[in-house]
Amino acid sequence: SSGINAEYGQLMKDLGVEVETGRSLSTEDLTLKSLKHEGVSAIFIGIGYPDPKVSPIFQGLTEDHGFYTSKGFLPKVSKASKSGMCKCSKSALLPSLNGTVIVLGAGDTAFDCATS
What we know:
Layout: H1 6-14, H2 32-37, H3 70-81, H4 108-114
C-alpha cells in the first residue's frame, strides 16, 4: 500500500501531480540534483509521523466527544471545502465545533487546524 488514500491520490492526479512511491531520496536513487536536471520544478517531501501524538489525558475521547486530531480533522475540512476540485462527495459537511475550541500544538499543522 502506498499509504496515500485513494481519494487524495485521485485529487492529486486531477491536479496534475505525479506520485511516486517505493523510491528513496538518497545518493543511490533520487537526488535533488538529478530531479532538477530532469526538469522537475517542485518537490514535496512529506516526512511526518504517521499517527498523531495523543496525550494520555485524552485517551478514549472520540470525534463524537468533540475530540479531533489533525489526521482526522484536516481531511474532513478539505473534503467539505473543496467540492468540485475532486470526485469527493458533494454532501460532505465541515466538522461541527461548538463552544470554546482549543488547539494544542505549536507547528504548522496546529496553525492549519486553528485557521480551518
